[in-house]
């Protein structure tokens, strides 16, 4: 073999492996105080490292003998899944929103192929595994420090349990996915020093999973454990590894028991509002449980599937469509209003895939997982080395816990979790195929596509570099810088510094004109500047890229200010349709009818506010306007009743207090004149 070829191949491979290491390291840890949503940071890391490593993967082939493609049984279902995602862009009712989600899922799949085609040595395999151990330890320590009030980052402002990954449910998913792999290495480690290190990592991770109190994760862990025991019995795997580690397993069991007791009882170390036992029991208590809310979301998601059963409504479209389908249920079932929720995800990946990609897409995904597990079982059946079996079981254990959690959560929508899953999926595949051990296996599974004219390689390489730069600029830097400017503008806006906020948001909109959050905030600022036509322009743009009930209420207010009462009524009614408990929209609609001298209709809307929220903190305003409506109808007795009620409730010094008193005096004066 040509020495230059080997040298170049090693250089490219080292660059790709380094890029993969950095991706795995930074995606759960990277955070930026100017970014409002943590998953934006993760998406930034995912995109930049996948674009970089993919480019060098292609360059490695262009500048050597040709393309090497790992031919395996997973290729067909994966390519079918990508095809289904691509076709869903055509059926999507919002191409831009779908395209954003499509890119994230496509990058997951590219990550899988990069791993199975570039991890060629066991040392490389272990290096990626050890980075997963490192990040899980750091995340656990960070979470525990935050839990006990020791947080030196901007996340200290967040209440409850949080880390750069996100909330406690996302933290527990990440740790539980890696936990079985750590345990498998713990069993196989012979060096006492390393054994202690693994013991400490397992203890820290277990403690963090316990304090997160995520029920779905414990369901996944339990079911995965049962499957693991079943596999040991079915395939007659050796239990000698457990006998060899009996003292270390007893130590681990005792440690886990102590940790469980500490966080299952009330004591100084347990900072949770409820104990783990209470959390588990709360599934049967409606006032503590989120299960009914989840069931309602799943019902709405099922309605989406029924409407477009074959190919779905487009990848990423759930966040745009959910409020509408939720509202359709409320039309005939008012008793479900208590479960109203603004959510971006279905809290069930399988249902969400079914809603977005149709039953065809869901079946292809399940078929892909079926092929993967079939390959794994073939390996377990044939492999005789217990150490290899234990590592493989640890890897598949993490994947299985993740897939069980997908029944109750949305980990694929969180780039840090999706990246971890596809990383472990790729590592499991190459481990069970032994591609870094057996050259015979490698030769059977790779096809070489040679490029006959080397001079074209330079042109293709230049094109790839230019494409990489453009992709990083368009797909990574511009959207991310837009989010940074959005974060800065939002902070200024919340502090009332609208003149300072506006340039940030305008620049953010210039960088990413399809960011619904930026457009919504721009519309809000222009409304505060009384620039209603500009506000309408941005609110209408925002509707295309985000579904937010507030947007329709804001549009209704803008149209009211410009005198377009028809559009105002249309948008306010739609806001109420999406959220039948949206009291501000009822109030604004009542005011619109009042301006049109439709007093009975205005009274109806204002009474809706009081019926929805009897203890409304500003009910004195509602009583005042009800008095005004009855006064306009010349029903002074009723008007006086509401004015007196308003006067009794209005806080002293409120500007409206004087207006209420004036209206009361007018009524008394009119009585005296009669």
Description:
The protein has 28 helices and four strands. The longest helix has 40 residues, at 455-494. The protein is elongated and about 105 Å long. The chain has helices at 3-26, 38-62, 75-91, 95-118, 122-147, 168-188, 192-212, 215-234, 240-244, 246-262, 276-281, 291-307, 318-332, 349-382, 386-405, 415-433, 439-444, 455-494, 498-511, 516-528, 532-545, 549-562, 565-578, 583-595, 599-612, 619-632, 636-649, 655-673, and strands at 67-70, 162-163, 166-167, 446-449. The chain starts with a helix and ends with a helix. The strands form two sheets. A two-stranded antiparallel ribbon has the order 1-4. The chain has a two-stranded antiparallel ribbon with strand order 2-3. Among the domains are: 548-614, Serine Threonine Protein Phosphatase 5, Tetratricopeptide repeat (Alpha Horseshoe), CATH 1.25.40; 617-674, no CATH class. Strand 2 (162-163) and strand 3 (166-167) form a beta hairpin. The chain is an all-alpha fold.
Keywords, separated by commas or semicolons:
674 residues, disordered N terminus, two-stranded antiparallel sheet, Serine Threonine Protein Phosphatase 5, Tetratricopeptide repeat, mainly alpha, elongated, 74% helix
**Distance from first to last alpha carbon:** 113 Å
Report strand %: under 5%
Q: Can you tell me the overall shape? A: elongated
Which residues form runs of ≥5 with pLDDT under 50?
A: 1-7, 284-288, 437-444
Please state the structural category.
mainly alpha
Q: Could you give a short account of the major beta sheet?
A: 2 strands, antiparallel
CATH architecture title of the domain at 548-614: Alpha Horseshoe
The radius of gyration computed from the alpha-carbon positions, rounded to a whole number of angstroms, is: 30 Å
Name of the CATH superfamily of the domain at 548-614? Tetratricopeptide repeat domain
Oligomerization status of the protein chains: single chain
């Amino acid at each position: 073999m040509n020495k230059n070829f080997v040298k170049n191949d090693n250089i490219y491979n080292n660059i790709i492996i380094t890029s993969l290491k950095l991706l795995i390291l930074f995606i759960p840890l990277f955070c930026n105080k100017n970014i409002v949503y943590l998953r934006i940071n993760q998406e930034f890391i995912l995109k930049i490292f996948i674009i970089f490593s993919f480019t060098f993967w292609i360059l490695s082939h262009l500048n050597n003998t040709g393309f090497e493609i790992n031919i395996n049984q997973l290729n067909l279902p994966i390519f079918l899944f990508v095809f289904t995602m691509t076709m869903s862009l055509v059926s999507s009712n919002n191409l831009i929103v779908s395209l954003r989600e499509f890119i994230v899922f496509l990058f997951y799949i590219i990550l899988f192929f990069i791993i199975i085609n570039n991890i060629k040595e066991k040392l490389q395999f272990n290096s990626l595994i050890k980075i997963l151990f490192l990040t899980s330890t750091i995340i656990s320590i960070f979470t525990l420090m935050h839990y006990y009030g020791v947080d030196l980052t901007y996340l200290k402002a967040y209440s409850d349990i949080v880390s750069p990954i996100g909330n406690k449910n996302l933290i527990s998913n990440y740790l539980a996915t890696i936990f079985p792999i750590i345990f498998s290495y713990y069993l196989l480690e012979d060096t006492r020093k390393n054994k202690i290190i693994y013991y400490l990592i397992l203890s820290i991770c277990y403690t963090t999973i316990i304090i997160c109190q995520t029920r779905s994760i414990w369901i996944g862990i339990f079911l995965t454990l049962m499957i693991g025991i079943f596999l040991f019995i079915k395939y007659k795997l050796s239990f000698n590894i457990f006998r060899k580690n009996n003292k270390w397993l007893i130590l681990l069991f005792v440690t886990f028991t102590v940790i469980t007791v500490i966080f299952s009882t009330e004591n100084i170390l347990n900072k949770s509002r409820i104990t783990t036992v209470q959390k588990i029991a709360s599934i049967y208590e409606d006032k503590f449980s989120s299960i009914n809310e989840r069931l309602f979301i799943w019902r709405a998601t099922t309605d989406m599937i029924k409407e477009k059963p074959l190919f779905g409504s487009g990848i990423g479209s759930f966040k745009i469509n959910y409020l509408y389908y939720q509202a359709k249920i409320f039309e005939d079932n008012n008793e479900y209003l208590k479960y109203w929720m603004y959510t971006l995800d279905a809290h069930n990946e399988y249902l969400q895939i079914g809603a977005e990609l149709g039953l065809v897409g869901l079946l292809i995904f399940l078929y892909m997982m079926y092929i993967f597990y079939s390959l794994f079982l073939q390996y377990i059946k044939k492999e005789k080395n217990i150490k290899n079996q234990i590592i493989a079981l640890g890897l598949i254990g993490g994947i299985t816990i993740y897939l069980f959690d997908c029944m109750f959560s949305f980990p694929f929508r969180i780039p840090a979790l999706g990246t971890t899953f596809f990383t472990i999926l790729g590592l499991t595949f190459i481990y069970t195929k032994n591609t870094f051990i057996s050259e015979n296996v490698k030769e059977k599974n790779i096809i070489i596509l040679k490029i006959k004219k080397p001079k074209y390689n330079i042109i293709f390489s230049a094109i790839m570099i230019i494409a990489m730069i453009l992709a990083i600029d368009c797909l990574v830097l511009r959207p991310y810088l837009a989010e940074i400017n959005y974060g800065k503008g939002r902070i200024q806006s919340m502090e009332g510094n609208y003149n300072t906020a506006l340039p940030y948001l305008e620049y953010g909109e210039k960088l990413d004109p399809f960011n619904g959050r930026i457009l919504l905030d721009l519309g809000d600022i222009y409304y505060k500047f009384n620039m209603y036509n500009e506000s309408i322009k941005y609110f209408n743009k925002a509707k295309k890229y985000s579904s937010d009930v507030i947007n329709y209420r804001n549009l209704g207010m803008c149209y009211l200010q410009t005198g377009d009462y028809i559009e105002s009524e249309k948008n306010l009614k739609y806001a109420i349709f999406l959220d039948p408990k949206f009291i501000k929209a009822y109030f604004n609609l009542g005011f619109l009818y009042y301006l049109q001298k439709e007093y009975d209709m205005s009274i109806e809307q204002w009474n809706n506010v009081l019926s929805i929220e009897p203890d409304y903190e500003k009910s004195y305003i509602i009583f005042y306007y009800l008095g005004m409506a009855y006064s306009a109808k010349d029903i002074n007795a009723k008007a006086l009743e509401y004015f007196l009620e308003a006067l009794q409730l209005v806080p002293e010094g409120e500007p409206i207090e004087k207006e209420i008193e004036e209206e009361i005096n007018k009524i008394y004066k009119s009585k005296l004149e009669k």
